[in-house]
């Protein structure tokens, strides 16, 4: 039997035991809970019928960590619990925890589901600096952070956490309901879903003797797309590290016309991916840049930047008409969408008190210091690029897989074009782009594999709408913007893209032949 475990980390007296007591009292009162403490502060552990505890000192885990692990394993086997809450010592490197709980005897007995970092210090930055890699290792391992600070101080403290772990979700005491919801939210990872779908498809293809050609086609597309993905994340990371968001904001003109033109020029000159454009967009709105220009920049930058143009040129064998159509339609759709915000501009755009999320921070085990050397910035850039590559790579693999299945499982559809009406094919490809959530630096390679299934006009729907709006972008927008604004942005972008690309397709797709 494998017992789920939640780990609570943080400085001494940061409120770890207080958080555990509240969880036990309000949410876990009907469960059998085992609390393992590696640190004791002034707050006593809550008592109850379903609660029992173990305590091990810092000296014990330093001198005989495996003996402690064996002791815990024996306790679990003798008297199993429904949930284990672990209060980790704030002055002990998290690597020690991993040695004890993720290896040897305890690995098959305990499954660590969540790691929560607790903090209540106003000067969180200095505390982290003083403790060095000990705190950094705990923050980097965290899924959630629970800050016991004033609301107005929360964002500043959260930024220090994002510098170390950009993926951590930060909540304050005032957002207990949101924190609780996240604690009890169990998501099936996209990698697992992809693995299940892949296993089912491979079984089907094997039964039909198509496995060899499937693997060959899949690897061929993957090897073509990866170089552009690497170039894209490197350039995007370099811009985030070397070009400050404040500089970008300061250059935006207030005039509507010049703001639109500057948004297009900035979108071309700053090759950020669609993920990176959203934090910049949020900063522009905060700084008072006209909303129409900010929206245009966010939508146009992933479509017309040089990396996207290069990957499109490569994927379609130097077909300049494809490049011109993608860039032209992308600029037109982005500008039209931006201009709609001059008509009945929304009263509220940003959340007044958002659940704090990452996005503008970058780098693992990196913290704001006075070290501004070239080497420090370079390693910061490479750390961010590494994170982005593996995150976005999952979406790329999903897209390649789906496009390969389309060609292998339904070869008749590929040869005939599927017989789908032109407007329906445009809408279908736009929906595909939204769901697959590919990086704009490599989506053209995937689109090229479906050129035999869908006409050029439909492919434009995939290449224009996908970088502007997809699932991962929607998730990022939810972290800082009002839902009404997000719904309006999605609906407006979809309708304008569908209308513009649909007219383009009906009129012959500019005479493009693939």
Distance between the termini: 57 Å
The number of helical elements comes to 23
Proportion in β-strands: 5-15%
Count of individual beta strands: 7
Q: Uncertain spans, ≥5 residues at pLDDT below 50?
A: 353-371, 412-417
Order of helices and strands: EHEEHHEHEHHEHEHHHHHHHHHHHHHHHH
The strands making up the biggest β-sheet line up spatially as: 3-2-4-1-5-6-7
Helix content bin = 55-70%
Question: Any overview of this molecule?
Answer:
This protein has helices spanning 16-26, 58-63, 65-78, 94-101, 124-131, 133-141, 151-164, 176-183, 190-207, 211-242, 245-251, 256-269, 274-286, 291-304, 306-315, 320-339, 374-409, 411-416, 422-436, 443-449, 456-468, 471-478, 483-506; strands at 3-10, 33-37, 51-55, 83-87, 110-119, 144-147, 169-172. With 514 residues, the protein is an alpha/beta fold. Strands 3-2-4-1-5-6-7 form a 7-stranded parallel beta sheet, sandwiched between helices. The longest helix has 36 residues, at 374-409. It is globular. Residues 353-371 and 412-417 have low confidence and may be disordered.
Short synopsis of the structure:
With 514 residues, the protein is of the alpha/beta class. The chain is built from 23 helices and 7 strands. The model is unreliable at 353-371 and 412-417 (pLDDT under 50).
């Amino acid at each position: 039997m494998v017992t789920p475990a939640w780990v609570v980390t943080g400085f001494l007296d940061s409120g770890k035991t207080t958080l555990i007591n509240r969880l036990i009292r309000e949410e876990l009162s009907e469960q059998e809970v085992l609390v393992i403490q590696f640190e004791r502060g002034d707050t006593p552990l809550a008592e109850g019928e379903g609660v029992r505890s173990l305590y091990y000192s810092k000296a014990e885990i330093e001198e005989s960590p495996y003996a402690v692990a064996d002791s815990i394993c024996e306790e679990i086997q003798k008297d199993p619990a429904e949930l284990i809450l672990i209060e980790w010592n704030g002055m002990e490197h998290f690597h020690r925890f991993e040695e004890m709980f993720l290896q040897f005897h305890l690995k098959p007995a305990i499954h660590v589901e969540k790691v929560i970092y607790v903090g209540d210090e106003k000067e969180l930055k200095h505390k982290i600096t003083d403790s060095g890699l000990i705190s950094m290792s705990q923050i980097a391992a965290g899924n959630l952070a629970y800050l016991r600070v004033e609301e107005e101080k929360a964002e500043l403290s959260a930024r220090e956490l994002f510098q170390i772990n950009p993926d951590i979700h930060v909540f304050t005491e005032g957002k207990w309901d949101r924190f609780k919801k996240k604690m009890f939210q169990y998501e099936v990872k996209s990698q697992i879903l992809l693995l299940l779908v892949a296993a089912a498809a491979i079984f089907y293809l094997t039964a039909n003797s198509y496995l060899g050609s499937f693997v060959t086609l899949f690897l061929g597309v993957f090897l073509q797309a990866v170089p552009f993905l690497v170039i894209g994340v490197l350039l995007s990371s370099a811009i985030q590290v070397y070009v400050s968001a404040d500089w970008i904001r300061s250059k935006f003109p207030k005039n509507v016309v010049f703001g639109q033109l500057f948004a297009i020029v900035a979108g071309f000159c700053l090759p950020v991916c669609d993920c990176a454009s959203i934090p910049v967009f949020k900063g522009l709105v905060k700084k008072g840049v006209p909303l129409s220009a900010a929206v245009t920049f966010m939508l146009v930058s992933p479509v017309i930047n040089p990396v996207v143009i290069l990957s499109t040129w490569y994927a379609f064998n130097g077909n300049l008409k494809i490049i011109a159509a993608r860039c032209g339609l992308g600029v037109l759709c982005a500008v039209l969408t931006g201009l709609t915000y001059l008509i009945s501009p929304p009263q509220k755009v940003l959340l007044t008190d958002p659940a704090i999320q990452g996005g503008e921070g970058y780098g693992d085990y990196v913290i704001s210091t006075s070290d501004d050397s070239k080497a420090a910035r370079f390693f910061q850039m490479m750390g961010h690029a590494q994170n982005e590559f593996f995150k976005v790579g999952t979406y790329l693999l999903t897209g390649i897989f789906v496009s390969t299945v389309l060609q292998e499982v339904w070869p008749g559809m590929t040869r005939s074009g599927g017989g789908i009406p032109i407007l329906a094919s445009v809408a279908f490809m736009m929906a595909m782009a939204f769901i697959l959530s590919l990086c704009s630096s490599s989506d053209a390679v995937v689109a090229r594999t479906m050129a035999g299934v869908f006409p050029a006009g439909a492919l434009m729907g995939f290449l224009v709408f996908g970088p502007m709006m997809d699932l991962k972008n929607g998730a990022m927008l939810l972290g800082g913007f009002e839902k009404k604004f997000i719904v309006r942005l999605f609906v407006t972008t979809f309708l304008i893209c569908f209308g513009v690309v649909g007219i383009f397709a009906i009129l012959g797709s500019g005479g493009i032949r693939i």
